[in-house]
Every structure is written in C-alpha cells, then in structure tokens.
Amino acid sequence: MRPTDSNIEKVQVFFQIFLPILIYQMANFSASFVDTIMTGQYGTLDLAGVAMATSIWHPLFTLVTGIISALVPIIGHHLGQGQKDKVVRDVWQFIYLSLILAILFFIIVGFAAPLLLESLGLQAEVLKVGKDYLDFMLLGILPLLLFSVFRSFFDALGLTKLSMYLMLLLLPFNAFFNYLLIYGIGPLPELGGAGAGLGTSLAYWALLVVVVGVMLWHPQIKSYGVLQPQGLYLPAFKEGWLLGLPIGGAVFVESAIFATVGFFMARFSSEVIASHQAAMNFSSLMYAFPLSISMTMAIIISYERGGKRQSDVLAYSRIGRLIAILFAGVTLTFLYVFRDQVAALYGKDPEFIRLSSNFLVYALFFQFADALVSPVQGILRGYKDTSYPFIIGLISYWGIALPVGYVLDRQFQLGPDAYWIGLNIGLWACAFLLPWRMASVQKR
Questions:
Q1: Is residue 337 packed enough to be buried (19+ CB in 10 Å), middle (13-18) or exposed (0-12)?
Q2: Mind listing the GO molecular function terms for this protein (predicted)?
Q3: Does one domain contain both 392 and 440?
Q4: Residue by residue, what is the 3-state secondary structure of 51-82?
Q5: Taking a C-beta distance cutoff of 8 angstroms, is the pair 362, 276 a contact?
Q6: How far is CA 256 from CA 100, 285, 315, 368, in A?
Q7: What percentage of the chain's residues is helix, strand, coil (to nearest 5)?
C-alpha cells in the first residue's frame, strides 16, 4: 500500500491488491466446485446426497475457519510491536485450538449430522451418499484446520502470494483424487458421490505435506522456528478463542441461511435437490468476485483512514463500488447467455439441466445485489464498523429471506422457486440498508 495522487493510481493500487485475493478465493471455492461437478457427472442421486451433506458441512466449516482467522490480527499486533518471540507461541495456541475444534467437529458431524439427514425423509440412496460423504470429509478436517492456521501465519507475515499458490495446488490434488475414487480407477473401489468426500480429504492431507515442506525451506518462515513445539499458554489461548468466536459466528450466521434453504429443498424430488445444489454452487463460485472486492476495500479503507486521508477514503469507496458493478455486468451477461451450458457441466439429464438453468436465472439477481452489498461490507470493515452490518445481515436473511421463502412455498405453492425468491428479496433488502449505514458512518 502507498498513498496516491490520482484516480488512475488508485485503480492500479486496487488491482494490485485485488488480483491475488481473487485468485486465492477462486482456488478456495474450487474444492466444492470440483466435488459438485464431478459428482453431478456421475449421477443425479449422488449429487443430491452430496448437496444435503454440504448443507451441514459448509456452515460448520465457515465457523471453525473463521475462528482460526483470528490469528492474523494477533500476529500482526505482535509484529507491529516487534515481539517476534510471541508469534511462534501464539501459532501453537491456534494449533491446539484447531485440535479441539477438530474433535468438536467429529462429535457434531459424526453423531448429530446422520440423525439430521435421517429426519429429512430422503431417498435411501441419497441418504447413504450423504452419510458416507460426511464420514469421508471428517478424515480431512484436521489437515484443513492445520492448513488454516499456517495460512493465517503466512498472511500475517505479508506472504499472501504464497497462500495463493498453495491454494491453487488444491484444485489438481482434489480433481485427481476425486477421479480415482468416484469412478474406482484400477484397484480402487467405485465410491460414487461419497468418493468426492474422501478425495477432498486426501487433497487436504497432500496440501498439508506441501505446506510443511515450504515451512522447512522458506527462509523467512524458517527463521521463526514454528515447527518447534511450544507449550499451552492459557492467556494467549483464551485471547484467540474470544477473538475468533465472534468472527466465526458472524460468518456462520450468514452461511447457515443457505444451508437451511437446502434443508427446505429436501421435501422436493432428488432432481430438484441436485439442481438447487448445482445452481447454488456456481453462484458461490461467482461470489468470489464481489467477496474479493470486499476484502480489498477493507484493506485499502483501513489504510487510508489510518493515514487520515478522508478524501482518498471516499474516492476509493466510489472506485470499488463502480468496479464491483462492472464485474457484475460481465458475470451476469455470461451467466444469462451460457446458463444452459453451465447447468450441463453438473449433469446430463435434460430435466436436471432445465431445473438448474431455471435456478440460475434467480442467481442473475444475486450477482447484481452482491455487487452492491459486498463493497459496502468491506468499506464498513475498514471503518471497524461490524456490529450494524451483522444486525442488518441477520434481519435481511433470517428476518426477511427465510420467512418470505417459506410463505411463498407453503401459502402460495411456488415450490422450490419460493426460496430463491426469498433469498433474493433478503439480499436486496441488505443492498438497500447497508449503503444507508455507510453514508451515516462516512458523515461522521
């Protein structure tokens, strides 16, 4: 980051920060994207099973990784004060925290998730795939959390490109193991949709091995001696937990609404469940663009506010929001023109493609609403204003989106479309309320 004098310089700075974040986020979404596409090509019932399993997995995944992300500001604080010796100590506190979170994850997913799936009245084959997928995914929760700890350490050191390159490795690892296990290549068993869960777990183990190798080789990282074990230090452990829990909780509340909609979809046919998952999965992939803009805005706005350059804060706010709308125009046009082809990536059945294409039309409105919401969320984080956006999101999703979807389904018999309409109404409510909050904050 550096101070700028012109809008052209500001755009250059924006993209210097934005592009590595975008590549990282696209790679981050790739595991779910690959699982969904490869499972959908194998069979619609398998995709439906994976869809119900991920409705349970994803909110919990965002919760625990959100907690781990608290390591970044903690290390940043130590580095700012020149307390390098405390960095390794706190990395190890988060390693211990990740072990506890992994155990809790095993208990919740291993015991409660099967009961939840059984209560949804799913077809026997869909239920079996969902249970097996979660069992296999549990085998990868420990390397996933340990990777999150080390990645947060790298990011705090300013090595964001290293994190990006490591995440890019996840895509070929995941695709390779998925192919072997879904289709049963050679002596390996043909596991179908459940094989995507085992493939993803093996990919995370392979990635963790690479990360450890990097830590042994990279001069800057090696100088910290992070791989030398440190004991449990309760004050630092408690600080990490207390700081991380609200971060993870905020992300959990937002992601859980989409999972809840997935559960409501369980009352419809397996083809509807699979089509909903396909459309939602591609929408999540496209969300990497506004999410990356949001993260970029948080970094830039906090930097400019720290330098007390209010005119630059306002200029960057306008630039970020404009770029988000331009990106949305491109992705929206792409999705509208190629929605049938996108649907065909996930499955071959004509009815599945028709349903998925229909749901993707609703996703078009997601794209534009996200372009209005995400930059403002980043701007407000730059102002350290997080309580009001959390409340606005809570009201928009849980107070508007879900009730509207439920009423449209049960009272007006709109079927699965009802929940997509509800999500859109909630997201657009957020798109109108957040700019109002931003204007209020920027007038101070």
A1: exposed
A2: antiporter activity; xenobiotic transmembrane transporter activity
A3: yes
A4: HHHHHHHHHHHHHHHHHHCCHHHHHHHHHHCC
A5: no
A6: 22, 17, 34, 21
A7: 85, 0, 15
In this prediction, residue 1 carries a pLDDT of 58
Whole-angstrom Cα distance, residue 157 to residue 222? 12
Quote the DSSP letter at residue 14. H
> What does pTM read for this prediction?
0.80
Contact call for residues 221 and 154 (beta carbons, < 8 A): yes
Contact 360, 419 (CB under 8 A): no
86-109 exposure pattern, b = at least 16 Cβ within 10 A, e = fewer: bbbbbbbbbbbbbeebbeebeeeb
Q: What is the pLDDT of residue 303?
A: 75
Asked if 167 and 101 sit in the same domain, the reply is yes
Q: Kindly list the distances between the CA atom of residue 48 and the CA atoms of 138, 172, 276, 334, in Å, as whole numbers in the listed order.
A: 19, 24, 9, 26
pLDDT < 70 positions in the chain: 1, 80
Q: DSSP letter at 112?
A: I
Q: How far apart are CA 240 and CA 1, in angstroms?
A: 27
Q: Is the dihedral of CA 325, 436, 389, 151 positive or negative?
A: positive
Q: State the residue range of the domain holding 441.
A: 287-444
pLDDT reported for residue 209: 97
For residue 325, CA distances in Å to 77, 151, 182, 316, 410 come to: 34, 30, 39, 14, 35
8-state DSSP, 398 = I
In-domain check, residue 310? yes
Q: Tokens in use for 323?
A: 């770029």
Instruction: Establish if 376 belongs to a structural domain.
Output: yes
CB 261 within 8 A of CB 298: no
On whether both 212 and 300 belong to a single domain, the answer is no
Q: Is 423 exposed, middle or buried (0-12, 13-18, 19+ CB in 10 A)?
A: buried
Amino acid identity of 105?
Answer: F
CA–CA distance, 416 with 264 (Å, rounded to integer)? 8
The alpha-carbon radius of gyration of the chain (Å, integer) is 22
Look at the block and give the residue holding tokens 């390159």: 165
CB 313 within 8 A of CB 301: yes
* Domain-embedded: residue 20: no
Angle at CA of residue 287, ends 286 and 291, nearest 5°? 140
